[in-house]
Amino acid sequence: MTIFDPFELTLIPPNHFSFGGLDRDVIVREREDCLDFILRLPETRIVPVWCSHNLFSVTGETGATPIPVYLSPEEAAALTDIAKDMVYLGKQNRDDIIISYLAIDISILDKDKATKKLASWGKFADLREIGPLIGGVDGSILAYARGMMFWHSRNKFCSVCGAATIAIKGGHQRNCTKKGCNSLHFPRTDPAVIMLVHDGDRALLGRQKIWSDGVYSTLAGFVEPGETIEHAVAREVYEEAGIIVKNITYQHSQPWPFPSSLMLGFTAEACTKIININDDEIDDAQWFTREEIHNFETQKKFLPRKLSISRRLIDDWLSDHL
Ligand SMILES: [Zn+2]
Q1: Which 8-state DSSP code applies to residue 133?
Q2: What is the pLDDT of residues 34-72, one digit of tens each?
């Protein structure tokens, strides 16, 4: 048995960006010399991040599969010297070698310098655009690295008093430096619910104004303070489409650190049928039969991308697994 193996944690396969399965190694995080210790391990692999972009040896521009670039501490020495943030992501047994992953943020370099310095290794690209093309474990590690660096970039100063903060615990905490404040700051994850609402024969799909023409997906929204995730499902469906739901059932989750969400997937049964759209929130919402969804392309309608939890909820309903 392998600890944290995403395929053993639940009875159903993980979602895209959920394959990481890293041992986040809190014991090493707690070491005062955590980052130096990780940098001394020859098996450590450095994960460069520049302005929320990850490094790939092939970016997919030619249709080839993108390959993430991990550097050894020796190869990355010039980069770790200038990195503005570093995060020990955790360790993993890959091919019987324990690999420790260390993310570094080199956004301090302007675009030309970053491009030139890394030219022999690859190019930076947006994981959201090429994520579906890369392997599950690698995509998960890159998404995690990117999310952590975003958090660091937005928490350089204390949200309580405005003083500078410093990173500790392998980059998993920032402390305020002002005496008398000493506030502790932790990486945020914002829970969001996403739900396939159905009435047995039809699914409720909607579209947001900013989406590409014809794309329809499940409804979704952020959980508000003081409510359960089930309440959030019912509230969002009612707010967006005027539908009352019951029998809300959790299905599976997906980290979505773009920049900091955790998607919680549900199904829910509709108690009412008449849609009353909130124009401020969505562009349209309709009931669709399975047959209608299967024929979407003939109506110039489209489902969300395969990597998304919304697509999985829809596909599972289409195949009658829900
Ligand atoms: Zn403070």
Answers
A1: G
A2: 999 999 999 999 999 999 999 998 765 666 778 899 999
Q: Is 54 exposed, middle or buried (0-12, 13-18, 19+ CB in 10 A)?
A: buried
CA–centroid distance, residue 293 to ligand 1 (Å): 52
Residues 6+ apart with CB under 8 A from 253: 15, 18, 262, 263, 264, 265, 309
Identify the H or E element spanning 319: none
CA 257 – ligand 1 centroid, Å: 26
Q: What is the DSSP letter of 51?
A: T
- Ligand 1 centroid distance, CA of 236 (Å): 35
Distance CA 318, CA 165 (A): 49
Alpha carbon of 316 to ligand 1 centroid (Å): 47
The reported pLDDT for the residue numbered 185 is 98
d(CA 110, CA 93): 35
Determine the distance separating the centroid of ligand 1 and the alpha carbon of 185, expressed in angstroms: 9
Domains and CATH numbers, the chain: 11-154 (no CATH), 190-318 (3.90.79.10)
HEC assignment per residue over 134-199: CCHHHHHHHHHHHHHHHHHHCCCECCCCCCEEEEEHHHCEEEECCCCCCCEECCCCEEEEEEEEEC
Ligand 1 centroid to 165 CA: how many Å?
Answer: 8
Ligand 1 ion local residues (Cβ < 5 A): 158, 160-161, 163, 176, 178, 181, 183
| pTM strictly above 0.90 | yes
CB 317 within 8 A of CB 292: no
Full DSSP string of 243-301 = --EEEEEEEEEEEETTTTEEEEEEEEEES-------TTT-SEEEEEEHHHHHTGGGGT-
Distance, in Å, from the CA atom of 313 to the CA atom of 318, rounded to the nearest integer, reads 9
| C-alpha to C-alpha distance for 29 and 173, rounded to whole angstroms | 10
